[in-house]
Amino acid sequence: MSLRLGDTAPNFKAKTTAGEIDLYEYLGNSWGILFSHPADYTPVCTTELGKTALLNDEFRKRNVKVLAVSVDPLDKHHGWINDINETQNCNVNFPIIADEDKHVASLYGMIHPNASETFTVRSLFVIGPDKKIKLTLTYPASTGRNFHEVLRVIDSLQLTSNHSVSTPADWKPGEDVIIANTIKTEDAKKRFPKGVREVKPYMRYTPQPTLD
Ligand code: BEZ
């Protein structure tokens, strides 16, 4: 059965470009992103890994550790990293798992046999510090993912895990957020001193609580 939101992310040990990694030890108390790539030396994957490397400071700022998966062997990964760095003007500074026996791919349901028997699809999991799955994304091999969107979701997840709010459609950091329906408007006014804007009794906005 596929992994669903709130499930515990299965732990594993794997060979990677940075040596053997135990997922839980690698993540420690950080957030994590585990994402699969259909194959080495393919153009869309090359741009995805390059984009992730270029955004790595943004992931670090949010205390997120990145871990990529491809079912190709380590020597191929090392050669491919040179190409990624050269063509995408980046420095791939996160590990890539060499998942030749497809152990990680199977554990996380990254192979969708009706799409391809051999390649993984573009799966992405955000894992919280509690090791629970917070986000799953599945894209076909032909469509590269939007890593700014991944950062945006992480901003929302981190905000909403600490405050009784949720984020509306297309929300970007800095914009107003929605107050949880479990909080009465009277209480919300005390809890959110920056203000409560009531559009409907079930739809109340407040400025993002974490802004100065
Ligand atoms: C790519 O990364 O370009 C790719 C990989 C597998 C199938 C199709 C495209």
List keywords for this structure.
single chain; 5-stranded mixed β-sheet; elongated; binds benzoic acid; 11 strands; alpha+beta; 212 residues; 4-stranded antiparallel β-sheet
Note down, in words, how this protein is organized.
The protein has seven helices and eleven strands. The chain is of the alpha+beta class. The chain has helices at about 25, 45-55, 55-60, 75-90, 105, 145-160, 185-190; strands at about 15, 20, 30-35, 65-70, 95-100, 120-125, 135-140, 165, 175-180, 195-200, 205. Strands 5-4-3-6-7 form a five-stranded mixed beta sheet. The structure holds benzoic acid. The site of benzoic acid has 9 residues, from α2.
Give the overall form.
elongated
Helix content: 25-40%
Round the Cα radius of gyration to an integer and report it.
19 Å
Q: How many strands in all? A: 11
The biggest sheet, with number of strands, parallel, antiparallel or mixed sense and barrel status, is: 5 strands, mixed
Tally of individual helices: 7
Helix/strand class = alpha+beta
In this entry the ligands are:
benzoic acid
Mean pLDDT rating: 97
Instruction: List low-pLDDT spans.
Output: none
Order of helices and strands: EEHEHHEHEHEEHEEHEE
Tell me the distance between the termini.
Answer: 44 Å
Q: What share of residues are in beta strands?
A: 15-25%
Strand order of the largest sheet: 5-4-3-6-7
